[in-house]
Amino acid sequence: MLRINWNVxxxxxxxxxFFAIVIVFFSGCAAQVSQSNLYWxxxxxxxxxxxxxxxxxxxxxxxxxxxxxxxKSKELNLRVPPGIYAxxxxxxxxxxxxxxxxxxxxxxxxxxxxxxxxxxRTISTKTY
Length: 128
Prior knowledge:
The longest helix is centred in the first third of the chain and has 22 residues, at 14-35. By secondary structure, this protein is mainly alpha-helical. Residues 24-34 have low confidence and may be disordered. The chain folds into two domains: 6-35; 43-125. The protein has helices at 6-9, 14-35, 43-52, 56-75, 84-95, 98-111, 116-125.
């Protein structure tokens, strides 16, 4: 059976090691966030709101958040997250702004070439 010597664990030598491990752990978590090089802003909340309570107010709030993500990403010199331009393109199509929609779909395609086929299918299935 494993016996734990609590006198050693309570000792002053264990505390610095424990805190060092905690600091390394949390600094590793912070590094992973910054390595993503993507700024998502309040995307998940506005998307949740638009799904939970569909309507013009939540739709406008989500579109504004998408535009904010694009602006903030450019400001921080980061790549716009995948799908943001595509969603803005869909909003533009719903408004009947076909030029803006094509522009957004083109930006999505240029930013993420691996999604080019999906963007082409989206464009071809939507009527202008």
